[in-house]
Design a protein that fits this description.
By secondary structure, the chain is α+β, with helices and mostly antiparallel strands. It is 27% helix and 28% strand. Helix 1 (65-76) packs parallel to helix 2.
């Protein structure tokens, strides 16, 4: 079985409260984008194994989230061993949920492969054990995200006809590093109005991580400035970084350093 775990971007990311369990409450609109890894899962009579190739392929098997997904599901259900090949296309530590998507798509693939008939709700419960962003990728549709990331409310929202440009400068930002300088505050953002009108000019949509990350990594701030100067409808860092995206009415003609990862999509 071959599946294609896709990335996401955050439209707004408000860190609203630090929780007693050490996590933070947040508000964001997640949007899936057509940048994908490749995950192949096959039955085997040998021990479960993992081969990882492509971007960020040096993670030990036991620490890789797709292996953790298999181990997690095997703790609850009688599933067999599998041979796994994960080819990474989504940069790691980039704020696009590549690892979270891999883990959740692994759960979904195993659910189908072993005919477990687990509901989306159960898959969301299981995926929350793998990471805060993981439950979103169960339904994999535009959704309002809250709690620590496990509260997923799908919404009707798309940016069809817009050009999306994503650029990553190759900087890996750990989640712990990104949260270190955050001061939670209420967002008071009108998500209903934004989802209905999609008017980026009349709303104060922000990513609360940008201020601290831009101070640490000026090259990330420069990417956003380039997008704004090129006429982007909206530009933001995605998640905790280091990817920055720009939304455009027309395809922009931009050149980036060869060391940067960049992709353009017509949504």
């Amino acid at each position: 079985m071959i599946v294609f775990p896709n990335a996401k971007i955050n439209l707004g990311l408000f860190i609203t409260e630090k929780r007693t369990d050490g996590f933070h409450n947040l508000e964001s609109l997640f949007l899936p984008i057509p940048l994908c890894d490749i995950l192949e899962v096959t039955l085997t009579t040998e021990d479960t194994s993992l081969v990882c190739t492509g971007e960020s392929s040096d993670i030990p098997t036991e620490k890789n989230i797709v292996y953790k997904a298999w181990k997690l599901l095997s703790d609850y259900h009688a599933i067999g061993n599998v041979s796994i090949h994960l080819h990474k296309m989504i940069p790691s530590g980039a704020g696009m949920g590549g690892g979270s998507s891999d883990g959740t798509f692994m759960l979904k693939a195993l659910n189908e492969l072993f005919h477990l008939n687990l509901s989306n709700h159960r898959l969301e419960e299981l995926s929350a054990h793998l990471g805060s962003d993981c439950p979103f990728f169960v339904q994999n549709k535009a959704a309002l995200i809250s709690g620590r990331g496990e509260v997923v409310v799908p919404v009707e929202f798309n940016l069809e006809g817009k050009y999306l440009v994503v650029v990553n400068p190759g900087v890996h930002i750990s989640t712990a590093q990104a949260f270190h300088r955050i001061e939670p505050k209420s967002s008071n953002f009108n998500w209903k109005e934004f989802i209905q009108h999609k008017d980026f000019e009349k709303v104060e949509l922000r990513n609360d991580f940008e201020q601290s990350v831009f101070l640490l990594y000026p090259e990330i701030a420069e990417i956003k400035s380039t997008f704004i100067n090129a006429g982007a409808l909206y530009s933001s860092m995605s998640g905790t970084g280091s990817t920055v995206y720009g939304l455009f009415k027309e395809e922009p003609q931009l050149e980036w350093s060869e060391k940067y990862f960049s992709r353009t999509f017509l949504l």
